[in-house]
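Support reply, case 0932

Customer input (verbatim):
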Amino acid sequence: MKAIAICGSPRKKGNTETLLNKCLAKLSAAGIDSKLVSLRGKTITPCIACGVCRKKQDKTCAVKNDDFNPILEEMLDADIIITGSPVYFGSATPETMALLDRAGYVSRSNNHLFTRKIGGPVVVARRAGQNFTYAQLMMWYIINDMIVAGSTYWNVAFGLQPGDSAKDEEGVKTVERFAENLIWLSGKLK
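Our regenerated output:
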């Protein structure tokens, strides 16, 4: 089994990355090959719905010259995909959504490439907006025919300064339980 956690935060060692690493640590301890993929410093331009991926059906986005295709390859190679984003004005970061929109378009244009992969979102907010952002990311999993692991609460935590999310005990426990459920689910799907 392979897992990737995609961090949509532009901050190095920020709160989103902190939570994703806690999740990945649990997965790694269970023997799942785990990797953090950061969108920080990468260029992912938005989907323009040109339909080239649908016409070519080669599992890539052929019209953009940016950092998208290598990340898509890692997503396609993974069994578990976790997406993490801080809340920016009530929604996920533009980089996160550009990646997910394009990946979803390529997937759906190539016979649903993400079908039955497992995963789920992780969201960090300073104060509010986490529920909308969580739902926004969750919609991507559902429309891509994926299986989402639950937890004891939504996978959200609070924090402003780097390291604050690690102090949100309930948020950390929720994300760790989410990781445990991913491990359990991956065992059922083997």
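We compared this against your earlier run and they match. Two observations from our side: The domain at 2-189 is CATH 3.40.50.360 (Rossmann fold). Helices lie at 15-29, 52-56, 68-77, 94-109, 130-143, 169-189. Please reopen the case if you see a mismatch on your end.
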